[in-house]
Amino acid sequence: MTSADRNSSWSNAASATPGTNDEPSTKSKKTRVHRACDACRKRKVRCEGPQNSQAGGKCPFCIQMGKACTYLEDTKRPKGPSKGYVTMLEQKCGRMKSMLYQASTTLNVASMLTFLQLCPSIDLESYIGTHVNCEDFNNDSYLDDLHSRGIPPYPALKPLSLPSPQSSTASYAPPSSNDTTSPESTAEGDNDEYRLTQTALVNSMHWLKVRDAHWRYHGKSSNAQLVMQIQDLKYQKGIKSDFIAEVGKAKREAFWEATEWERFIDTDGTEPLETKAWPERGLDQMLINAYFDKVDFHVPLLNRLIFQEQYDAKLWRTNEGFARLCMLVFANGSHFVQDPRVLWQDDSSTIAPNNKFSGGWKYFRAVLRMGHNIMQLPTLFDIQCLVLTCSFIHTSSSTPQRLTTVAALGLQSIQELGAHVSAVLAQWDPVERALYHRAFWCLYHIDRYGSATVGRPVAILDSEFDVPELADIDDEYWERQDSDGGGTQPKGKVSRVAFFIEISKVDRIIGRTLTNVYGIRTPVHVVVSKRAMATELDAELTEWAKNVPLALQWDPDCSNYSLLCQSAHMWAQGHFARILIHRIFVPPHPNTGTLEQLSSLTSCIEAAYAICGITDALLVRGRHENCPPGHAIPVILKLPSWVSGIILLLALYTTDLSQDEVHRVREGLVSCMRASQELEVLWQRSGKVTDFLERAVAEADLFAKGMAQKVTGPGVEIEGVSLEGELGRYLPKATPATPSSYLSPDAGKNDGKKTQQGLYDSWLRMSTFQSQLLNMDIPMRAREEMEEGIGDDWWAKMLGAQK
């Protein structure tokens, strides 16, 4: 039987009277569902059918009700609206919502009232389209009508002609002879006007149909802003024509469209994901859980629920950006999974030395092999991948100084999309906007942290963005349909991101310190000395410490171990910032520091001791919590702990210390070394820091031994120098050193040359070690010439000054 015959047979069977009981239907493999009569269909009740009735042609219901049992009505169900009709109706509602939101966010209350009063009969059809008729809807003709009305493709919105906040407020408010405008209100009005201009600019760029135009950000200094100013002037003169729309209509496509060769290289340099590198079922979820419990716990980038939904839906099969993100999640989570399948595997059968540190590198390699095309517009997934790349480089790479390079690339991508400007972010989906917030603040933190580590300028200044702080709410309480992207955190429950919000405040202080105190040139706007600026930053840091929420105050006996680890991270960052503020003012010569220099040295020393107290508390608590080896201290504390050791070693040579103070310095160095030894179990590069600290402890032992062999007189107390710093009050410390340990400049003058010589020897060793630590080695001959030059010129002069 042909296909036509089968269709004909099925059609005849469907149209046959239900009472017929032909032979083919009884032999059919499928049970036929008999049609209900017209009366039963109308009342929506089950029809037994005449085949089960003894009345010869009527169903039981029609017999009971005395109705004619007919089968005349059309059996076809009413056809619903077309897909195009539903889509256009949704877009029309979306345009209306965008118009209302744009008006409410760009105008204050008075401006909004004035706008509604002056424009009561605004032609909505010119902004959202005509009425959509379900019965005779034609998608092509409706699109042509939208184009004729100047309505750009969805989700873009035709520029809404709104009055400026200043003019509308003036027309609404009663006149006043003594009306004055404060600088704050003026700045707020400027921001409102800028948000309005930016919204109109982003929407109007659709007229030109430039590739990716909707997502490219154009700042205040761009030429696009001048074009928008022309459009605004035309509107003020009563000219209703849209300049950009006219350009779009008259443009010559040959000069505007992307060339064939440019489109051809859009995907060059990129390769699909190697599926063989994907972790096995079960292992993948183990790595995801490890990432969120250990990595995202300290750098909150992703929403766990959203990521899990996307992963369970297998988005990685169709979206390469998400696949790349998943591989980086696997790479970062591999350090915390004891499974040989996450380790590096090469073609040879030999096991590389230190293979236990290779966790995650095969996933990271798979990401690198996918490549990247700089011609492509960055996406949210791309920016999130850069954050995770920074996390992996910081913990696993031998070149951690690249951290700032990758973070700067991420911040530049943020700026390219305009995600650093609240006016642009306000137009996006609430969930997407919240994820961009997280990505930005993670990159901001990494940039400040990395720049302070290697002594480089920050990638973005605080004056160049207005991204709001992260919402203090856990992932499970996000309201995804909320226009503000917010939600409600239960009272009394500390969110997982609360500590990171406080860290962001410290990062702002670190950024200003790097710019104003360590900058190569003093900024023009800074009219005070670096010393005064440091004092101001220190006071701001102290004020931050006083205002930290009670739940995040340092308490080594905190019952919530997770909260203790986050609090330790936050306070270590705060004390690291304090060291950064003051260490530039540490006395450059032994026993010759001014009162201010000694005060800065005191601040650094006390901050170092505070960090030692944090790491000791985490080690003790980690043992009680049965943490596996290497898991008691977060790797993010590696830098603060190492800096603390450097400061304590520096204190040995900067001023003469008492035996008790030398003993305390040694104990602090031992604390730093214990922390580094804990970290090196998981993180190979921490072993370098351990080697440095072991030598530092040996130096302290030699220093103490030398002090025991000579008789030292009592010290001279310097008034006004207190080892109890303001920020140090918030952390437990060992027995503080006494102020009498700081001697006058004349004390120990006879031993100055020996001290300088020892400092020079230590400097040589530290310089070589630092070069190895940061993998910035220079040729041996060049290094010898450099050290020889420094010794002949500078050190000879310094040693000769003590004769």
If you had to describe this structure to a student in words, what would you say it looks like?
The chain is mainly alpha-helical. It folds into four domains: 63 residues, no CATH class; 152 residues, no CATH class; 214 residues, no CATH class; 235 residues, no CATH class. Helix content is 54%, strand content 0%. It is globular.
Helical segment count? 31
The shape is globular
Unreliable sequence segments: 1-30, 106-121, 162-188, 711-756, 766-772, 774-792, 794-803
- Rg over CA atoms, rounded to whole Å, is 36 Å
Which percent range fits the helix content?
Answer: 40-55%
For the terminal residues, how far apart are their CA atoms?
116 Å
Structural class: mainly alpha
Identify the notable features of this structure and list them briefly.
mainly alpha, disordered C terminus, single chain, about 800 residues, disordered N terminus
